[in-house]
Amino acid sequence: MKIAIAQLNPIIADLAGNAQRIVEAAQTAASEGARLLLTPELSLCGYPPRDLLLNPGLITAMAITLKQLATDLPPNLAVLVGTVSPNLKASTTGGKALFNSIALLENGQVKQLFYKRLLPTYDVFDENRYFEPGLQASYFSLDNVDIGVTICEDLWNDEEFLGKRHYPVNPIADLAILRVDVIVNLSASPYSVGKQQYRESMLQHSAVRFSQPMIYTNQVGGNDDLIFDGRSFALNRQGEIVCRANGFTPDFVLVDFDEAQRDLQLSSVAPAYQSEAEEIWQALVLGVRDYALKCGFSKVVLGLSGGIDSALVAAIASAALGNKNVLGVLMPSPYSSAHSVTDALALAANLGIETKILKIEELMQGFDHTLADLFAGTEFGIAEENIQSRIRGNLLMAIANKFGYLLLSTGNKSEMAVGYCTLYGDMNGGLAVIADVPKTRVYSLCHWLNRDTEIIPQNILTKAPSAELKPGQVDQDSLPSYEILDDILQRLIHNHQSAAQIVAAGHDPVIVNRVIQMVARAEFKRRQAPPGLKITDRAFGTGWRMPIASNWAAVKNAYSIS
Q1: Residue 257 gets which letter from DSSP?
Q2: Peptide bond into 48 cis (omega under 30)
Q3: Residue 316's closest CA among 331, 324, 326?
Q4: N or C terminus: fewer CB in 10 A for the chain?
Q5: Is 116 a catalytic site residue?
Q6: Under a CB-based contact definition with an 8 Å cutoff, are residues 191 and 183 in contact?
Q7: C-alpha of 365 from chain center
Q8: pLDDT of residue 552
């Protein structure tokens, strides 16, 4: 039996468009002689639909579209489609109104429904808000082959691999007890660095543990802050990968189930990425491309400061949308160094993007004049420095509004963590491209980008980073070195270490406490930031749920060094 995997890139709530993508994949599958086609979790509406699921009209439209889709599919091809279905017992049991479901479509009919059993409610996930969990393992028979159906999180509860259970049941173990021939998993699993290796290791463990061939089908594409990497794959009973789709792009692959051996046979296996930098680059390019196009933008604008952050964002945008669709705006002030302009122009020349230069000295003088009486008798300080950033932010927003461009903000994760950024200034934008990329990672990505030819000018890579808001300013006037800062932030934000633990790792107690305070105090800024593309397991996005108004003294005590 040939089984096809359609690694699809849906648009949220584009029911007609998503159905057409499934039909096209089904036509390809039929022409290749496949008997079964797999599509990702919620492939009909896209993942995650979030509170659109509270709209009864969408649920009704989805049911109508699903029935029509069944009639539009080629005959003699079974198709598993991700959808939602009503919980008919909700009014009497008090359960949620919907199930996260997989529909089996064949010969013009909806033959069977399968319900997701494990509903994640951590990080970016909040499925208990919408869905009722399924209560039993389910499978279907196709040409004397029993196929167990699971949905995304149903995979993630192998207590032997994880060291503990996160849910009371293990759907994979339950299907193994039923002695199905193959288990399929239809997923919409967001990307983070290193996650694919973890997925493959986890499924290899389950395949060997239960002597069970498995097929994993994942969504691809960018939806808001989330990036889905695809990289669908299949394993035989020995846990060997026999098929893998390409990453960060729609794909279609076939794998054969040998009915005599009751196992999956070797098929096409796309190579793994050679480095984390390559993987992250592909993710960010996809995230920018899909965010722009799915939101109706074809062109982007960003400020080019001559620094490394805007250089990386400009390179990503050029790869995502084409260099003819990227505008870089240089906005030098009297404090800008000569190389801030020459480096930015050199970068633009390497990328082939258009640039404009808008000097802001006269605008700064206008603000100084207007505020002169009110600020009389005070010293030049952060307020005046931030005016420069806000002038630039206003100019960029004006360009974006005037020409219908998407404004990309260029702040990195290190800055976002400690608030080294200006509200209504450099934080302006519709998408924060590298908001989940620490400063040290920005450098490593740029070095990787330059591996064959110079794209990021050498001076941008070697000069001291600076906001250039006052004479001679460098970032380390206000921050620890980025190597120290990023290690502290990794331990604090990702590893949830206390101040005592971070100090025990070799960091200065004064610096540690200062960084912790900066992270807490910057929460109000992060709440007002544009969405940032998520590439780690702890990003400042939908999965970050920190209060703004809180008892900082209590937080400080919780991280006490003494």
Answers
A1: E
A2: yes
A3: 326
A4: C
A5: yes
A6: no
A7: 41
A8: 56
Whole-angstrom distance, CA of residue 447 vs CA of residue 442: 9
CB-based burial of residue 48 (10 Å sphere; 0-12 exposed, 13-18 middle, 19+ buried)? buried
**Phi and psi at residue 36, in whole multiples of 5°?**
-140, 140
Out of 41, 106, 127, 468, the active site residue is 41
**Choice among 116, 294, 439, 534 that is catalytic:** 116
Model pLDDT, residue 558: 54
**Structure-token match 């400061």, residue found:** 305
Q: Are 239 and 205 a contacting pair, CB within 8 Å?
A: yes
Q: Is 152 a catalytic residue?
A: yes
Instruction: Render pLDDT for 451-478 as a digit per residue (tens, 0 to 9).
Output: 999 999 999 999 888 766 667 777 777 7
Q: How far apart are CA 409 and CA 430, in angstroms?
A: 7
Q: What is the pLDDT of residues 414-439, one digit of tens each?
A: 999 999 999 999 999 999 999 999 99
28 contacts 4 by C-beta, under 8 angstroms: yes
- How far apart (Å, rounded) are the C-alpha atoms in residues 318 and 353? 8
Name the strand (E) or helix (H) holding 114: strand 109-115
The bridge status of strand 36-38 relative to strand 2-7 is parallel
Residue 523 is a catalytic residue = no
Select which of 45, 152, 243, 446 is catalytic.
Answer: 152
